[in-house]
Specification:
Length: 325
């Protein structure tokens, strides 16, 4: 059974290989191990005749339960492989995978049960007949993913307006977004929460376009609170007027609020933006000094848990950080 699945996975990857984007070794190993898990759960009991008297709803329920267990196994393997590949926290990765199961996973489980029962009646013709809906679903999901990717590129292009106009340093929005995502994962955010966080981090400075004169180096962290609040509110208005997600607009608008009143994403963007502004162009000791400034500001400006999560993220890079005092 395992060899047949491995051969089928390789055969299914031929069209993708022909297009230059063949399946990865991780994907193939995960597919084979998942099928192996199903075989270990079912085959020994079936060979012993445990299910010989099962029929109708009982057997259908058995297949559904086995496939659901198999989907959970696949989610765990996917999270383990992603954790090994990226170093991100395992729990949020697993939560993302489990949350995805009710979508395409439920369609796969239902089709698997019907297909297994139909093969006994109509033979192997059931395989292509019942695989067609899954293929159409997969194509729809890929189209949806392409739309999301285009939307993300649109936001990234809009975020570069502040750089082109000279209001922020080149690459500032991208650096803040990348570091914000890492801190968000460190704090356990996942799925849609990370998407909102990334988009808000990319757009966090868009309100600076309302300034008559650019802020030196685009550093808004040291501006008076009233000015920061005005820029944040204008940034949120821009996000709303461009058809952006209302959740993203809220995060942009609330950057200047006291951190105890901010949602987690706004706390992250505020702290990471301040770190980026303080660390850039200040020499080799700049990042350490910027982090210490943030730690000193945890009494009122920056959330302590966000600052320490930022420190942990940075410590896994090339920067050596001192212990929190």
């Amino acid at each position: 059974m395992l060899s047949a699945d491995a051969a089928a996975s390789l055969l299914g990857g031929v069209p993708h290989i022909a297009r230059g984007n063949g399946p990865t070794a991780d994907h193939l190993a995960r597919r084979v191990l998942t099928v192996g898990f199903a075989a270990i759960c079912f085959q020994p009991l079936y060979n012993q005749g445990v299910f010989a008297d099962w029929s109708g709803p009982e057997f259908a329920g058995l297949l559904a339960g086995l496939l659901a267990l198999n989907a959970l196994c696949d989610a765990v393997l996917a999270a383990v492989l992603a954790h090994a590949r990226t170093g991100w926290r395992f729990a949020p990765l697993l939560r993302d995978e489990v949350r995805a199961i009710p979508g395409i996973g439920s369609a796969v489980v239902a089709t698997g049960v019907v297909m297994a029962l139909a093969v006994a009646v109509v033979g192997l013709w059931a395989l292509p007949v019942f695989s067609l809906p899954l293929l159409l679903t997969q194509l729809s999901l890929r189209r949806y993913a392409a739309v999301r990717a285009t939307y993300r590129q649109t936001i990234a292009s809009l975020a570069r307006a502040t750089e082109i106009a000279g209001y922020t340093p080149a690459g500032h929005a991208r650096r803040v977004a990348a570091l914000s995502l890492a801190v968000g994962r460190e704090l356990g955010l996942c799925g849609a929460e990370l998407t909102v966080l990334e988009h808000a981090a990319l757009m966090h400075d868009i309100g600076q376009l309302s300034q008559v004169d650019p802020v030196p180096a685009g550093a808004t962290a040291d501006l008076p609170e009233a000015e920061r609040r005005r820029i944040a509110l204008l940034g949120g208005a821009v996000v709303r007027q461009t058809g952006g997600d209302a959740a993203v607009a809220v995060i942009v608008e609330r950057q200047a609020d006291p951190y105890r009143e901010q949602p987690t994403a706004a706390r992250i963007v505020r702290a990471v933006n301040a770190y980026e502004e303080k660390a850039q162009g200040t020499g080799p000791g700049g990042p350490l000094k910027a982090l210490e400034d943030l730690r000193l500001g945890t009494a009122g400006d920056y959330a302590p848990d966000v600052v320490e999560a930022l420190a942990r993220v940075l410590s896994r890079g090339c920067l050596t950080l001192p212990a929190a005092g």
